[in-house]
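Q: I'm building a small set of examples for a reading group on sequence design. Run inverse folding on the following structure and report the sequence directly after it, with nothing in between.
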């Protein structure tokens, strides 16, 4: 089968960012499918007059559009990037022949080229939903214009209506779609959560790399108890919650260390906040981003992983890479929200759910949890088991194969 894969932010394992599309696409290639990826890059092409370049990535033919993007861009600048991607990716899709088109959000506008491709070439398409738009952006106040929200709602409706299959990344996303659009329930064959890449996190790391990336070398000592956050420092990630939590913990126990690994628009503000609270480089450290291939080593040196979001119910349906990376690494997971992930944590005893309201967090109980070494060890074993049995790449590919067979 010839699969056209549309993802605006495709990342390889040697890059910083989520690799779901790479993992799926490379697996499709191994099964004998042909995959052409259409995406963007911030790397300037050799031929300055040509915005497109082509690269073969482990059997995937990747069409790169030179279109720089940064999380720190203003809303208008980001919107302009999305508009350009719609125009150029549509032009590219109309030149590529395929049996099926798989498009993954965000943003929601990723569906516009798919709809045009289907209208002109009758190419069936699978719409993978990573975030519920415009529900989420409205809830966080990113877009306040009633007209724009109405237009996005219309786009969401037609994205579902004209798709052949809808793939939500969590049961809560599925619930949201079905409650608002019950007529499209039959298009949801599977929920396919983000992937816990147990094979990548189980691979040995070279000794010289271990030496270079040891926490002892990065922060100057090896913490006995550490909480790792590895991800984006954006508005919705609510890292301010982590810093204020670290400050409260520091007042009661100085042995617990918080490690914030990543980058994003909020980073300078967050460093400033940590300094003002007197915990910067005391019990809270900022680490530079690493590639997905390098991430397992960092996880192997910490006590627990974590995932945080703003205290907004609409965001609790997320399917964050951080959650699945932590499970794949065999670490307990700390989150600060309710929803399907909280239920999974409680049911399987694989982590700790903090109250979304920091003022209501039971600090004594949380600290006691982090110091219970035997329970954390057992919890980590359970985390890895949950990842292997429920969220492995093999399981995701199996579900996608069923959908691809249905489309064909």
């Amino acid at each position: 089968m010839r699969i056209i894969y549309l993802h605006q932010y495709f990342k390889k394992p040697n890059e910083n960012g989520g690799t779901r599309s790479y993992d799926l696409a490379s697996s499709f290639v191994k099964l004998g499918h042909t995959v052409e990826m259409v995406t963007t890059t911030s790397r300037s092409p050799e031929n300055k007059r040509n915005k497109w370049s082509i690269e073969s990535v482990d059997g995937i033919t990747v069409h790169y559009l030179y279109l720089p993007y940064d999380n720190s861009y203003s809303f208008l600048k980001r919107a302009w990037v999305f508009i350009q991607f719609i125009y150029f990716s549509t032009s590219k899709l109309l030149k590529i022949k395929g049996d099926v088109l798989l498009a993954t959000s965000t943003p929601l506008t990723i569906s516009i080229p798919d709809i045009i491709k289907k209208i002109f070439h009758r190419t069936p398409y699978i719409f993978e939903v990573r975030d519920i738009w415009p529900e989420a952006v409205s809830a966080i106040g990113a877009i306040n214009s009633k007209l724009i929200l109405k237009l996005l709602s219309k786009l969401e409706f037609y994205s579902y209506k004209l798709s052949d299959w809808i793939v939500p990344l969590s049961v809560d996303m599925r619930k949201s779609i079905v409650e608002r659009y019950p007529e499209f329930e039959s298009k949801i064959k599977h929920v396919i959560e983000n992937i816990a890449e147990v094979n990548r996190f189980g691979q040995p790391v070279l000794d010289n790399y271990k030496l270079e990336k040891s926490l002892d070398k990065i922060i100057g000592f090896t913490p006995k108890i550490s909480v790792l956050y590895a991800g984006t420092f954006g508005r919705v990630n609510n890292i301010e919650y982590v810093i204020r939590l670290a400050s409260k913990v520091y007042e009661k126990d100085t042995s617990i260390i918080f490690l914030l690994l990543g980058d994003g628009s909020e980073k300078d503000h967050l460093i400033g906040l940590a300094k003002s609270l007197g915990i910067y480089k005391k019990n809270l450290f900022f680490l530079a981003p690493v590639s997905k291939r390098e991430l397992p080593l960092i996880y192997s040196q910490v006590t627990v992983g974590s995932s945080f979001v703003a205290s907004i119910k609409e965001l609790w349906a997320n399917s964050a890479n951080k959650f699945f990376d932590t499970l794949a690494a065999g670490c307990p997971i700390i989150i600060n929200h309710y929803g399907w992930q909280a239920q999974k944590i409680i049911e399987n005893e694989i982590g700790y759910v903090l109250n979304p309201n920091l003022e209501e967090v039971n600090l004594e109980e949380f600290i006691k949890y982090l110091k219970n070494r035997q329970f954390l060890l057992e919890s980590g074993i359970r985390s890895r088991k949950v990842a292997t049995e429920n969220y492995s790449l093999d399981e995701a590919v199996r579900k996608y194969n069923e959908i691809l067979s249905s489309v064909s």
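The chain has a mean pLDDT of 92.
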